[in-house]
TrEMBL record:
Localization annotation: Cell membrane
Family statement: Belongs to the EzrA family.
InterPro entries in alphabetical order: EzrA (IPR010379)
Membrane topology, Extracellular segments: 1-3
Record keyword Cell cycle present: yes
Record's function text: Negative regulator of FtsZ ring formation; modulates the frequency and position of FtsZ ring formation. Inhibits FtsZ ring formation at polar sites. Interacts either with FtsZ or with one of its binding partners to promote depolymerization.
Cited HAMAP family: EzrA (MF_00728)
Coiled-coil ranges from the UniProt annotation: 127-186, 391-421, 470-528
Name under which the protein is recorded: Septation ring formation regulator EzrA
């Protein structure tokens, strides 16, 4: 029982401690909120309202000021006292441990106080803005006065530089002056909000007129001096060029000069109405037209200089290409008597002759135009450039053709040597086969030999004709070369297999009486040798039997044979 009572007491003490700690926390928050409320009560907004009331505000500015004043008075007279009462009630409840009620009242007071703080900040900012506007507008009056006087001074002192736009600029400046007077009256009346709208309008209009006064003189200078000077220069230059034998393919300079004069008048009219963007666009067109005329004239001047420089060079180029073509055609005609020219060499050479003739005709026509003082030099220059390019290509192709046929005689000699080599190889094959006294040869080898013999004979007949085709002969030689390689290889295989088979059969005689397997192999190998003429199979059968009774014998005999063969080859 004592334990239970002790436990209850301990719990009660703990709860009491918690309540005391929480009470202190709430009381501290209440005090902090009271301090904040007192700080807001002492805020110098009242002084700000009093200072602002001396600005002699009117209109929207005055109404806005009254609104700020009424809101502030409500905060001081109603809202803050109400919060003060709530904070006292919260404090009383906290001291009597009605902590929940105290906390609720405190929370409401804190929220209200935050709202008041926000409102007072806006009121203070609004009052400062009214005072700032008043100060800004007072300064603006002096600044605008200086700007307007400077503008007026510039338009009077440099009136000539604005040309027909000066009247309009003066009208715009007059409107600005009127609006400026309205701004002064509005500022002095105290309607700062309306004055601020007027000020913004004035600033934009002054920026516009400053821009006009900056751009207009340059535009008018182009229209009144630069463009007229340029078209006069073009007109005089054009006439001088015509008098000094220049010609133009599309001579529209006189027409363009009249168009430009009309465009200048149009642009001046636009400038007098301050349509600056339209003036810029029109001036741009005028500049482009003037540039194109300068370029047209300069093009002919440069072209004439280049034409005179290249006229002999092009003639020499034509002469050289024509001479080269004559020599090539003569060479091809001579070669065509003995060789078939299968790549249209003569046709191409004659086509080049036609092209050279056409180039020469253009050259002669241009030359005559120059002599008659009717040449358009830019066109002549273009013809010269084309001619040099075409002649260069023709000379290169003519050289390629000449190089391709220059080796025909050498190719013929090489072909004759190749045919003689094939004849010797066929003779050598026949000699090797005959020297072996073989019982016969298989049909496929005989066919290959006869085919090669026939083709070599045909090649000999072909190359001995009066007119030959080296392309055809070279193709047949390439085919024959491959066929001859195969035939020589087959011949070597027959010779090697036959000799080795005979030697092994002789070597096998020492084993025939004592070894039935060797005896049978000898009989079979001899049958393939004498009757089937299959020397490879004969060698395979006898070598296998020998290896079974005398391992390594076949390799020794074969090694000895090839070594002797190599030595014989070196002697030859």
């Amino acid at each position: 029982m004592i334990v239970i009572v002790s436990a209850i007491l301990v719990v009660a003490v703990i709860i009491m401690l918690i309540l005391v700690v929480y009470q202190k926390s709430v009381l501290k928050k209440i005090q902090d909120t009271i301090n904040k409320k007192d700080t807001l009560s002492k805020a110098p907004i009242g002084d700000n309202i009093e200072a602002t009331s001396k600005l002699n505000l009117t209109g929207d500015s005055f109404n806005q000021f009254n609104d700020y004043k009424e809101k502030y008075e409500k905060i001081i007279n109603d809202d803050l006292p109400s919060i003060n009462v709530a904070l006292k009630d919260s404090n009383s409840n906290a001291k009597t441990f009605s902590l929940l009620q105290a906390n609720s009242l405190l929370s409401e007071a804190v929220n209200s106080l935050n709202e008041i703080e926000d409102s007072m900040g806006k009121i203070d900012d609004g009052l400062n803005q009214l005072k700032d506007l008043d100060e800004q507008h007072t300064r603006a009056i002096d600044e605008l006065d200086k700007q307007i006087k400077n503008l007026n001074k510039n338009i009077l002192s440099k009136n000539y530089s604005y040309g027909p736009s000066s009247d309009k600029i003066e009208d715009e400046l007059s409107n600005i002056k009127s609006e400026y007077q309205e701004f002064i009256k509005t500022v002095e009346s105290g309607d700062q909000y309306t004055a601020d709208d007027i000020l913004n309008s004035l600033v934009k209009k002054i920026e516009i007129i400053e821009s006009l006064m900056k751009e207009t003189p340059k535009l008018y200078l182009s229209l009144s001096k630069d463009f007229p000077k340029q078209i006069d220069e073009i007109d005089r230059g054009h006439r001088t060029m015509i008098e000094t034998d220049y010609n133009f393919s599309d001579d529209n300079i006189d027409e363009n000069i009249e168009i430009i004069k009309s465009s200048i008048n149009k642009s001046i009219s636009l400038l007098s109405n301050l349509k600056i963007d339209d003036v810029k666009q029109e001036n741009y067109k005028i500049e482009k037209t003037i540039d194109s005329m300068y370029e047209m004239m300069e093009k002919e001047v440069i072209a004439k200089r280049k034409v005179r420089k290249n006229i002999k060079l092009v003639y020499d180029y034509i002469y050289h290409a024509r001479h080269q073509n004559h020599m090539l055609i003569a060479e091809l005609d001579q070669l065509s008597k003995n060789y078939t020219l299968e790549h249209d060499e003569i046709k191409k050479a004659k086509l080049f002759s036609q092209q050279i003739h056409q180039i020469e005709s253009i050259y002669n026509n241009d030359y005559q135009l120059i002599m008659d003082k009717k040449a358009v030099y830019s066109e002549v220059q273009s013809h010269q450039q084309d001619s040099k390019k075409q002649l260069s290509a023709i000379e290169k192709e003519q050289k390629d053709i000449n190089d391709s046929v220059a080796d025909l005689n050498e190719e013929e000699n090489t072909a004759r040597e190749a045919i003689q080599k094939f004849d010797f190889q066929l003779l050598n094959i026949r000699r090797k086969i005959d020297n072996l006294n073989l019982p016969g040869l298989q049909d496929d080898f005989i066919e290959k030999y006869n085919y090669s013999y026939k083709k070599v004979s045909e090649l000999g007949s072909t190359i001995n004709q009066v007119k030959i085709s080296m392309d055809e002969i070279n193709k047949k030689l390439a085919t024959m070369d491959k066929a001859m390689e195969e035939l020589i290889s087959d011949t070597e295989d027959i010779v090697d297999n036959a000799i080795l088979a005979e030697r092994l059969m002789q070597y096998a005689n020492r084993y025939r009486n004592n070894n039935e397997e060797v005896n049978a192999a000898c009989a079979e190998a001899k049958n393939h040798f004498d009757n089937d003429f299959d020397y490879e199979k004969s060698l395979k059968i006898i070598s296998s039997a020998i290896e079974n009774v005398d391992s390594g014998a076949f390799n020794r005999i074969k090694k000895e044979y090839y070594q002797n063969k190599q030595n014989e080859s070196k002697k030859d």
